[in-house]
Specification:
four-stranded antiparallel sheet
């Protein structure tokens, strides 16, 4: 029975296998049947079918005799997942290795990275020192010797070398080197990569002596054709003359400096004048109460003491002939360019001149200039200004103001029309020529080793002194001032006669006095300007003990 059962089981398995083979043959036969419908019957096709059938039968027999192992689906998925994991790990490893190599390269790179420009010059791959060398050579001829400033018809020049203008190429190259190095490693690497497909341009900063440039620009305010004029006053015989100010413009220093920097940075300063930026300004109101407090004083007799030796000069007493309220009303109710307040002058019993030579025993300095006596109008102006100054005594610490002592140059004061410089041109103007008195006094003051507190050079080098030995004045705008920094009073003696204007400064010598020499010379010339400097050389016993800069000046060329 058992053998029969085994036979039955084998038979059933064989039948089952045949069914499976038959099913597979039917599946495989379907496309063949479709091809039969499409293709016409031929003998070649019949032979091909017979051969194909035999091959399939043989394949079926082989499949019956072969054992096919069963692979679960879960094992196939696990194998695929392992392959994917290995690939991901490999990609991550390659990325980390590349990132590490890239980072190390950037860290140890001693040159500027790719894509960095300075002033539009490609400095990629250069060291900071090499980039600076290349940049300096490029900019060497780009910075002009001087620039021209313009306001309407007024033009002036400024020497850039005297103002220490320069491009800060060292800082620019250091900034270029820091590109791609200022963040963390991820930020730096990202910036380096981005610079491979882009670029950045660094503008070097412009350095200069801002204090000197600002002072130079401020001094231009008084030379503008539309400059503001402040109110002022002076004493004329027994009258107080108060001049009203005029609204005008002053140089906007900060805005003009920015315009200069921009013009130099873009190299346009080589060709085009720079427009002077200005701001409108009204003159200060006339303060009669302040003027009264400055003018009013009691008379003081002159005297001196021998132990210790001290001179006390005389002073005239001054008071208004009208009340302060009347003077205020006069100025407030009448809109005029000039106001006249009558004064009461009180003469002291003993004047300084009465003390005689004992008060000022020593000649501290002297200086002379020549003038053309044939020009009567100009000569008249020189004499008027000299007479105003002659006999002036300055106590220790007191400051001399040329404009206050000489006063306004008006027709009523006797001044005549004579040549003056106006916006670069020579024209006739009231009081022309009195700057020769200013320049003569300036040199005498320097030789006396007194302290200069305010001085401005002319637009052109004058004929009566050399460059940097002159001083100009404009009433209400430019003044010449100096301070008696000695221990004793000084006295100014001035004369204008025979074609010679002369100043003498008298006082008392001190133990620390030194011999003074003035050294002035041109430092350069351009087609439009002359540059010069002046130094005060101090000597004791024939040996130089000090050398002090008096001024650096720029003049227009005729």
């Amino acid at each position: 029975m058992s053998s029969k059962n085994e036979l039955l089981e084998k038979k059933e398995k064989a039948i089952s296998a045949k069914k499976e083979i038959k099913q597979s043959e039917e599946i495989e036969k379907k496309p063949a049947q479709e091809e039969i419908i499409k293709e016409p019957e031929t003998k070649e096709n019949d032979n091909l079918k017979n051969e194909t059938g035999k091959i399939k039968e043989n394949n079926v027999k082989e499949q019956q005799n072969q054992w096919v192992p069963y692979v679960p689906l879960e094992k196939k998925k696990t194998k695929l997942s392992s392959i994917v994991t290995i690939c991901v790990i490999a990609v991550i490893s390659i990325f980390c290795l590349s990132f590490t190599i890239f980072t190390l390269y950037n860290v140890f790179n001693t040159n500027i990275i790719s894509g960095v420009h300075i002033k539009e010059i490609d400095v990629s791959g250069l060291s900071p020192s090499d980039a600076k060398y290349q940049l300096d050579n490029y900019l060497k001829d780009k910075l002009p010797e001087e620039i021209t400033l313009k306001r309407g018809d007024f033009e002036t020049t400024i020497s850039l070398s005297q103002m220490n203008f320069a491009f800060d190429t060292k800082a620019a190259c250091n900034s270029a080197f820091q590109v791609g190095r200022e963040g963390n490693i991820f930020e730096n690497n990202l910036e380096v990569l981005s610079m491979m497909f882009g670029s950045v341009n660094i503008e070097p900063k412009i350095t200069f002596d801002k204090k000197s440039l600002s002072k130079n620009l401020e001094s231009l305010s008084s030379q503008l054709p539309d400059a503001v004029v402040q109110s002022s006053y002076y004493l004329e015989n027994a009258e107080l003359i108060v001049t009203a100010g005029k609204e005008g413009n002053v140089v906007d220093v900060d805005a003009t400096i920015e315009a200069i920097k921009n013009s130099i940075s873009t190299f346009s300063a080589l060709k085009n004048p720079i427009e002077i930026a200005v701001t409108s300004q009204k003159p200060d109101n006339i303060n009669m109460e302040k003027i009264y407090q400055e003018v009013k004083k009691d008379p003081v007799d002159a005297y001196y003491t021998k132990d210790p030796f001290e001179i006390h000069p005389s002073e005239n007493g001054v008071d208004f002939k009208i009340s302060l309220e009347e003077a205020k009303a006069l100025v407030e109710n009448e809109k005029k360019e000039e106001y006249s307040i009558p004064l009461h002058i009180i003469t002291p019993n003993v004047t300084t001149n009465m003390i005689g030579t004992e008060a000022f025993p020593d000649l501290l300095s002297t200086f002379s200039t020549r003038y053309a006596a044939s020009n009567r109008n100009r000569t008249t102006n020189l004499i008027l200004a000299a007479n105003k100054i002659n006999g002036t005594v300055l106590m220790p610490g007191e400051t001399f103001s040329y404009n206050k002592v000489v006063g306004a140059r008006t027709i009523s004061a006797g001044y005549k029309e004579a040549p003056i410089y106006v916006q670069g041109r020579v024209e006739d103007g009231l009081g022309g020529g009195i700057c020769q008195i200013t320049s003569t006094l300036y040199n005498a003051v320097v030789f006396a080793n007194l302290e200069i507190t305010q001085r401005t050079n002319h637009q052109f080098v004058p004929s009566y002194v050399t460059a940097s030995r002159d001083a100009t004045v404009v009433y209400g705008a430019l003044d010449f001032q100096f301070k008696n920094n000695r221990n004793y009073p000084i006295k100014l003696i001035c004369s204008v006669s025979g074609g010679i204007a002369n100043f003498q400064i008298f006082g008392m010598r001190q133990e620390d006095d030194v011999e003074v020499q003035i050294s002035s010379y041109e430092t350069g010339r351009t087609p439009t300007a002359i540059y010069s400097e002046a130094y005060k050389i101090l000597k004791r016993d024939g040996q130089v003990v000090d050398k002090q800069l008096l001024s650096k000046d720029t003049y227009k060329r005729h």
